[in-house]
Design goal:
alpha+beta, 17 strands, globular, 19 helices
Length: 590
């Protein structure tokens, strides 16, 4: 029985009790069990002499969200190591890891949850056998009810200890005989975090999973969850550079109008095969030219899910709180369960990151999504052509349908031809006609080189060819020179040789499979055959009464009743083990 009840927190989030001036000077100073005695459970695991970044009072609290599915142990460890090694105050960042179901990746010796559980140092207060808690998931029928276990503790790296919570979606008892119990997709994993912080920010009714998260985050970090203002979303195969988090957060602090931002994603396995080699310059040019150009308008149309940061909320100088990614309108659109049309399925089932950016730009036209080139991460890309086909099929089809949504938004930055709406229209048209565009380009080049009679038509073709060459090569060389990465010239030549792959084979394959919503070869699970629908539909109907919704103070009151003996609550005092008398809160609920 836990017998330390000093400084029991009040029944409201602590941040709401502070003035705007006090918020800037907040540091982790306690938890549910020890009040203001320590600075979070992370200090228990930190080794003496470990070098940690110097804290700064103005640093914002940030959540580092890692969504896992079927990745291997080496990839997951590299991701968590890179996040723990970032030069940002360990006490102001929280590792928030979600395992999407009880699944075992193809070729893995352990299931993904077992891999993650073995990597963290568990808080002895809560142990290693948490109870599954219910929540409302993204799904149809009975799949809307899901259950998850919350493990809490720390992730240690080179003596440093970062607070960490691990959410394992384990499913309801009825689905344990299936191939992927608890699996609901990446969008559902993101919504666990988004719904949680929305309910915390607005003091709305919570699910049992939300309250379990609230209690354990408060315990391990020393602050209540409403202190967190930013969330960095990364995939489980992404390695973040040490200074990247600092660059992103500094940009957010310097411009209050920024709601989302991303950095440059580079390829880790450049030389693994010819398939990875042709992707190097494509990744480079899509960030350094594509996203950099969109960032000028403050409207980057796709913040990649592998490496992007969003504001959870915006706190003004007068203390007013505005939910951003935790906005209920955003959650309502992003958590749509019923998808029937081809357009809806391409939006919701193929590209979560792009669709989230789309609805954010539509909801907040006066806020910006930007690109920060100094923030860098590395990721592992497909190294065989079959997996590349599956990945780009999803990306291309998702891009077309999201651009169709954005082109109808007339509140984007700029006017007429000098607007983000016009840029989106050009992107949409160029994506749709990529195969035909490259064929015409090759025809013009052939005509200009091999036809020796200089007629008016040939001169016109020659001029058009030169103009097209300038359009293709000049921006690339400008980016190369300004970025001072001359080595990328070789990668550019490889990319140009592979243009038929990028602009003919991949688009035609994607257009031909517009009705395929599966992840294909990208994420394979042991013993599971994925259908083209992209998700498993639940049998029966959703019984809403199975998921309780209560306010935080109701959960807290019930929890205290179970943790504090009735006689102590009745007498309102007791004697501690050290002989001192301690006072327990008075329960006035009865």
């Amino acid at each position: 029985m836990i017998n330390n009840y000093d400084n029991v927190p009040a029944s409201k989030p602590l941040l709401s009790q502070l003035t705007p001036k006090d918020r800037k000077n907040v540091t982790p100073s306690g938890n549910f069990f020890t009040g203001g005695i320590d600075k979070g459970v992370a200090t228990l695991f930190k080794k003496p002499g470990a070098k940690s970044p110097a804290p700064h009072p103005a640093d914002l609290f940030a959540v580092l969200l890692v969504t896992c599915y079927s990745e291997g142990k080496e990839g997951i460890k590299a991701t968590l190591d890179s996040l723990a090694a970032t030069n940002y105050d360990d006490r102001k960042k929280l590792l928030f890891v979600v395992a999407d179901g009880l699944v075992q990746g193809s070729g893995n010796a352990q299931s993904t949850p077992d891999i993650l559980i073995s990597m963290m140092d568990h808080d002895p207060r809560f142990g290693m056998q948490p109870l599954p808690q219910s929540y409302v998931a993204v799904g149809t029928g009975s799949k809307q009810h899901n259950m998850a276990k919350v493990y809490c503790g720390c992730y240690t790296y080179e003596g440093r200890a970062v607070p960490m919570v691990l959410i394992v979606k384990c499913g309801t008892p009825d689905e344990q005989s299936g191939s992927k119990p608890g699996n609901r997709g990446k969008r559902d994993s993101q919504l666990i975090l988004m719904n949680f912080f929305s309910r915390v920010t607005l003091n709305d009714r919570m699910t049992p999973l939300d309250f379990d998260l609230f209690r354990k985050i408060h315990h391990i970090s020393g602050v209540t969850p409403d202190f967190y203002e930013l969330v960095l979303m990364v995939d489980a195969d992404t390695m973040v550079e040490p200074s990247s988090v600092r660059y992103l957060i500094n940009a957010v602090q310097n411009d209050q109008s920024i709601m989302g931002l991303c950095g440059e994603t580079r390829i880790e396995n450049k030389k693994a095969s010819w398939v990875t080699a042709i992707q190097v310059f494509e990744y480079f040019i899509s960030h350094q030219m594509g996203k950099a150009f969109e960032s000028v308008f403050g409207g980057v149309t796709c913040l990649p899910g592998c490496f992007s940061m969003w504001r959870i909320k915006s706190v003004t100088r007068d203390g007013t709180t505005l939910p951003i990614i935790a906005n209920p309108d955003i959650l309502e659109q992003y958590s749509t369960n019923d998808v029937y049309t081809l357009h809806q399925k391409n939006l919701l089932l193929l590209g979560e990151d792009r669709f989230l950016t789309t609805i954010m730009l539509k909801q907040f036209p006066n806020r910006k999504t930007v690109f920060i080139p100094q923030a860098v991460c590395k990721t592992v890309v497909p190294d065989d052509f079959k997996t590349l086909l599956s990945q780009r099929r999803r990306w291309i089809n998702s891009t077309i349908h999201n651009l169709m949504e954005l082109v109808m938004v007339d509140t984007l930055c700029g006017t007429f031809c000098f607007s983000m709406q016009f840029v989106v229209l050009m992107d949409l048209l160029s994506t749709a006609v990529m195969p035909a565009g490259l064929v015409v380009t090759y025809y013009l080049v052939f005509s200009a080189i091999f036809q020796v009679q200089y007629s008016t038509d040939n001169i016109t073709a020659l001029i058009m060819t030169i103009a097209m060459a300038v359009v293709i090569f000049l921006p690339a060389f400008v980016v190369l020179l300004t970025g001072r990465r001359i080595s990328y010239v070789l990668w550019m030549l490889i990319y140009l040789l592979a243009l038929p792959v990028w602009q003919i084979i991949l688009p035609i394959y994607a257009f031909w499979n517009f009705d395929d919503f599966s992840w294909g070869e990208t994420r394979k699970v042991e013993g599971h055959v994925e259908s083209k629908s992209g998700h498993d539909e639940g049998d029966g109907s959703f019984i809403a009464s199975r998921v309780a919704f209560k306010r935080w103070d109701q959960y807290e009151r019930e929890w205290r009743r179970t943790m504090i003996p009735e006689d102590l609550r009745r007498n309102n005092s007791f004697v501690r083990e050290d002989g001192r008398e301690s006072t327990v809160f008075t329960d006035t609920s009865n």
